Amino acid sequence: MPTATTDLLLHPVRMRIIQAFLGGRALTAQDLGQRLGDVPPATLYRHLNALAHGGVLVVSDERKVRGAVEKRYALADDTPEISPAELAAMSPADLLRAFVSFLAGLIGAFARYLNRGRVDLARDGVGFREVTVQLSDEELRALLADLDRHLRAALTNEPRPDRQSRLFARIVLPGDPAPLDDSARSCWCSVSPPSGGSPERWHRLDLDEMKGWNG
Hints:
The longest helix is centred in the middle third of the chain and has 23 residues. Strand 2 and strand 3 form a beta hairpin. The protein is of the alpha+beta class. The strands form two sheets. The chain has a three-stranded antiparallel sheet. Strands 4-5 form a two-stranded antiparallel sheet. 42% of the residues lie in helices and 13% in strands. Helix 2 packs across helix 6.
């Protein structure tokens, strides 16, 4: 069954709030409201307080502004995480609920991007891809460790005029069992081509094709 930690962290709005603080940022509620302008203030304050009370955020600074105390928040050094034991204790229904919450956050982020207007996937570096590869357990661990190394390095980047926030989401699942023959090859399924590689190894899905995905 869900624990206090999973209920606290696996919520689309709270996940967005946590993402806003990544990179060592310290933000006030007003700063956060500017970053998450589509979230109603009452909702934002409720989730901000929940994360503070849950130990995910701490007050890093306080100052008086026009007679009121303005708090600046930051991620706690010992931010709660969902432990392997908590994950193991979750039922299939609990795991599906957590996964749906994660996907809901991604859907919301993509909708907000589309609502900006002047959408250009190539210019903005936007894409979503599914790739199936053949990996042993050891090879998978090595690949994930390499990805984590690059992402952790990018988390230290400071804001600059030529930079913008970019959302990376990672989902890793076992593929359907495949026979051990030449047909069990790696493949791309993408709305934008992978960087490098021959065209024969990927398939592009355009928006017209996607419109036919009704079931």
